[in-house]
Write a structure and sequence with these properties.
The N terminus is likely disordered. This protein has ten helices and no strands.
């Protein structure tokens, strides 16, 4: 009895000590690669849908027939504003004469003996025109009793330029005064044949003339030219100080010109 009870207890202990087998969860089903849509396939689908033309709407049925459209266009183009003005009578006469002359010359130059005759005729016409031109040129003479008047604009003298400069200085217009004094200085040099009096010349060209004719006066003339260009072209402030400096440069130029 005791032996049987002890064996039963040992069997129960052995069964409780033995670890139980772990439970394996069910494996989740994974979809196959072929079942997942690819990115490239999606892009191709989008591109195909974008390129697919949408069905065009049907064009409306014309309300007017082609004949009606043509008649309407003719009516519009027949208005006065779309008509070309008629050519003057002398233009029509000139065109008719030129057309007739062209047909005549064309018939002469068609070939054969007519070509030689045409060249002879053209030569005679040219010779006749030259003879008439020479004769008219020899017979036309000027009438000695007819007077021809030529208007000559008097040149402003350096003294007149200085008088204008003094008038502008009295008014406080120093830019105009400086311009007049520069013209007076150039006029003095022109009278001495040291610079060329050509309309439209620049201060730089006058400076080159002075450097070639009176090299000693070139620095002072350059200083006067710089003041003139700064005031007149550079629109820099100009007042009594610039006027005094210019007059000093101009006086030195004339002194060096007189001593050369």
């Amino acid at each position: 009895m005791a032996t049987a009870l002890a064996g039963a207890l040992l069997a129960v202990g052995a069964s409780s000590a033995a670890p139980s087998a772990p439970t394996v969860p069910a494996v989740m089903s994974v979809p196959s690669v072929s079942a997942v849509p690819s990115v490239s396939a999606g892009r191709a689908t989008l591109a195909a849908s974008a390129q697919a033309p949408s069905p065009a709407a049907p064009l409306p049925t014309p309300e007017q027939s082609p004949d009606q459209v043509r008649r309407t266009a003719d009516d519009v183009l027949s208005r006065q504003e779309f008509q070309q003005p008629p050519e003057p009578w002398f233009q029509r006469a000139q065109d008719a004469v030129l057309d007739a002359l062209g047909r005549f010359l064309g018939s002469l130059f068609e070939g054969g003996a007519g070509t030689a005759a045409a060249w002879i005729l053209v030569g005679l016409i040219v010779a006749a025109l030259a003879w008439f031109g020479l004769r008219i040129g020899r017979t036309v003479r000027a009438d000695p009793g007819t007077r021809v008047e030529v208007a000559v604009t008097p040149r402003t003298s350096p003294e007149e330029w200085r008088a204008r400069a003094e008038s502008f200085e009295a008014q406080g217009d120093w830019k105009q005064a400086l311009r007049c004094r520069y013209r007076a200085l150039v006029g003095d040099l022109v009278e001495r044949d040291l610079v060329r009096d050509i309309p439209g010349r620049t201060a730089g060209e006058y400076r080159l003339d002075v450097a070639a004719t009176v090299p000693d006066a070139e620095p002072d003339f350059a200083g006067a030219s710089d003041l003139f260009e700064a005031a007149w072209y550079g629109d820099e402030p100009t007042g009594p100080d610039e006027n005094r400096r210019f007059r000093s440069f101009a006086d030195d130029v004339l002194v060096r010109v007189g001593s050369s």
